[in-house]
Known about the structure:
The protein is an alpha+beta fold. Among the domains are: 2-234, no CATH class; 615-657, no CATH class. Helices cover 20% and strands 45% of the residues. The protein contains eleven helices and 35 strands. It has a 35-stranded mixed β-sheet that branches. A hairpin with a 2-residue loop joins strand 14 (234-244) and strand 15 (247-257). Helix 1 crosses helix 2 and helix 10 runs parallel beside helix 11 (637-657). It starts with a helix and ends with a helix.
Amino acid sequence: xxxxxxALALVVLIALxxxxxxxxxxxxxxxxxAEARFEAATGRxxxxxxxxxxxxxxxxxxxxxxxxxxxxxxxxDGPMLSAKGLQIGVDPGALIGGEVRVSxxxxxxxxxxxxxxxxxxxxxxxxxxxxxxxxQAARPSPGEGGGITAFSLDKGEISDGSVRWIDHASGQRLAxxxxxxxxxxxxxxxxxxxxLTGQVEGKALKVNGTLESFASxxxxxxxxxxLALTLDASSIGFKGTFGTAPLAAxxxxxxxxxxxxxxxxxxxxxxxxxxxxxxxxxxxxKGDVTLGADGAMQLRGGKLTLDGNALSVAGDLxxxxxxxxxxxxxxxxxxxLSALTGASGKAGAGGSSSGSGSGASxxxxxxxxxxxxxxxxxxxxLDASSIxFGTAKLGPxxxxxxxxxxxxxxxxxxxxxxxxxxxxxxxxxxRNGFSASADLVAKGVSMQPLLSDLADYTRLDAKADLAVKxxxxxxxxxxxxxxxxxxxxVAFGKGAxxxxxxVGMLRTLDLNYVGEGAKTIFDQIxxxxxxxxxxxxxxxxxxxxxxLSAAGKGRVDIGAQSLDYTVTPTALSKADGTGGVKVxxxxxxxxxxxxxxxxxxxxxxxxxxxxxxxxxxxxxxxIAKKLGITPQEGQSTEDAAKQKLKEEAAKGLLKxxx
Length: 658
């Protein structure tokens, strides 16, 4: 806003020059006197084209023809100001007393050019010639306003103007058109009020501002400020102190931003694309702010809403590497950060997803947009009631998130998830493509909702303790699934495997004990696994159930969402675990619709062995009955028969000797 005040101050200088010449009306030298006085005060050439006329009605004063003010000598973009003319009003009472007091200045259709060269020098800095400087030293204090002589103005107006801003360091260009503005400055050292309307890049702009000390502000010093700005559907308000040399502000801020890019442009910043949930559409904020010369900002007692995510914030914003860096403590309710993973819904299992972004495996092939990770750096301590990452959902969470050059590391210090707790670290890396890793320990996690969110798999209903180390890379869900590697172990408590009744299948040798309504109740499952290129391998699964035990081994192709696994269950008929039926069960095909098969050859061998043993036992019992023998504990029927024969032979010999 400082450069707008400087532009208005320029035209007031012209008015002062012409006002002095007004004493000589109708002298033909009015234009020459005004031009000379302006150049003496600023070091810039001013050209008044056409005649200068005195006016009596509606106000005593002067009207000029076209006006042009030269730019800085280093500029190549034309004059700093050109206008169709000036209408200057003076106070008649003061004029009668011999004093020229300008009461009103109207600038007609001005075109103002403000630019800053690569070294930071602005074209609004004026350097009066040495002789003029000594002459001006006897005048009232200039307020250190870049060479601007002190003045007062009851009302200054700009109508149908335009302002162009050029930053040669950044290459930024900004155009303000259809500009109408009014400035009230009763005293140079007192308060000033600015009301302005216009358009920035075709969007409606409105500014209402009050400065308690105009001279201090024009010199760049902090001054009490009350500012309200609206741009299209966005608004920002500030009440506190504001200065420009160096840039500094401190006070209460309120903001509602519907187009962050447009608002950033008006303040000379370029907003990067942010993911939804972090301010891509709407930002509202209020709190106590402190703004530094480099654009750094502190926020205390802040209330921030980003696309519907409500946050309480105390933090610092800086631009050390040319992009935002945030260091903050954030307390939040329910957060929706699903856009960070690019997940708009579940991928579907076994090809069940029919969207165009799904590949044959069922995982989405839609590219993951992780550009938001490169939009900012920072370290954020987060305390949230819940977080939705799209592919996973967390309950109450305490974590520290560090983002550095596109790599985000989340240290999970206290996380509730799916009925249990999770600790560890998750990394999302968008520096070169996209990769993700996890080193997690979970306790008491409900697997059915977890696997439903991660893989659209709902057959396993149990709580689990698990530890995993995972790594994946790729620019889509499908690529991540195919590249997955790592290891882990898991232990399930009491639960059910839905869609499969192992006990019923083994008792009847009927494969139809699958599908809706079928389930296997278990007491415990333990297993460890390794993963390479998206394929999970396991050889030590152990299941315990009231009527069943089982061992398992095989492979799960996570990338293809398919199984090739063998479970060898034993259906128990006795409490001690003996007398059961054991048969290998193969599970193959897509995990959404797996195929089940019993190994009948292995079953037949077990049956034959059992039949042989049963027949042998029955034969021995019959022989013993016929012979009238009773085997002792641990003695076979054959040994008992031999013992019986010896005893009978001995009895016969004794009879011979009697």
